[in-house]
Every structure is written in structure tokens, then in C-alpha cells.
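Sample entry (131 residues):
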Amino acid sequence: MTKSAALLSQCVLANQTGDGCAWCGSPLPKRRRTWCSDRCADRFWHNHWWSLARRAAKRRDKYACRRCGHKPPKRTDPQYRKRRKTERLEVNHIEQARGAHRSLSCIHHLVNLETLCVACHKDETAGQRQR
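Predicted structure, serialized as C-alpha cells:
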């Protein structure tokens, strides 16, 4: 059994009936085995693979911090090179990942991710450590 098949059997977002598409449950077209379309496959990977989930979370949040609304500098900004390290956006796991960033995991579901600026992310991480 592949890692993605094992994850699909446990994932709360996936179709659990076993019939049709593994994500949405619609009938599979000819020559397709798991996903009815590339869109369903993309939704699975954007909710389970960290690098894709991180990008999808930033896009969903319109590249702004959810707490304070901070937006990073644009690449056309003359001061971009100086400001990009301190004014960047980071993606935070609401429920802590605890080292699962490199693995295929349900911890990366988009509902568990929020886009934060560096300052808000530091505050959130400090608060999580105290809890």
C-alpha cells in the first residue's frame, strides 16, 4: 500500500465509501484509478503535502497576515532585498505539527493552517510553548 493510499483510508476529508473518486466520490472516468480529475488530485496534495499546503494557505489568505493584516513588500519595491527577510509571511499550524513537515500528513489540512507575519508567528509560537 502506498503512503497516499494509507493516508486516504484515514483522512477525514477523503471519500470513505471506497466507490469512485478518492476525494469527491464521483464516478471515475475511463483510465483513471484514484481521482476523477486533476482538480481532485490537486486538492488532496494541497491538503497533505507541506510545500503545496503552505503555498495554498498563503494564496487563500491573499498573502496577508491573518492577525494584523501585514502584507510583505512586492518584488518591484526598491527596498525589497532588504525587507524580504524581516517582513516575510510564514504559515503556522494551529494544531502543532511537531516535526511532521517532511511527511505526507493530515496535519497540513488547510483548516489547520494560517498565514502570519514574522512578529505574529513568534507571538503564537511563544504562546504554544507556554501551553
